Amino acid sequence: MGLKFRRQKPVGRYIVDFVCWAQRLIIELDGGQHAEGASHDRQRDAWLRSQGYTVLRFWNHEVMQELEGVLEGIRRAVSTGPSPLAPPPQVGEGNDGVQQS
Predict the structure, then answer these.
(1) Structural domains in the chain?
(2) Whole-prediction pTM
(3) Cross-sheet strand order for the sheet of 25-30
(4) Residue 85: what pLDDT?
(5) What is the H or E stretch that residue 66 is in?
(6) pLDDT digit string, tens, across residues 49-84
(7) Which residues contact 60 (CB under 8 A, 6 or more apart)?
């Protein structure tokens, strides 16, 4: 596909794990600490969605144990492409194990 993902980049006031600017796709990898901060994650994801991003969240263990399923979730998100109504990226956050926000 030739897409470029950037790691640990600012989007608004948040630092996201991975972002593909061209697809307006954010991928977050969550460890156990996110189970306690679910409310914060929901607020964060809502803001990122309001800026035109799709946010995919995967648990760390999914990446380690179910990598093909994680990659398939990313492929599906990429195949739908960015929203044509989405605002441009700002400088400066499921199904089959994929938590899509």
Answers:
(1) 6-100 (3.40.960.10)
(2) 0.73
(3) 6-11, 14-20, 25-30, 54-59, 99-100
(4) 47
(5) none
(6) 999 999 999 989 899 999 999 999 999 998 876 655
(7) 29, 30, 31
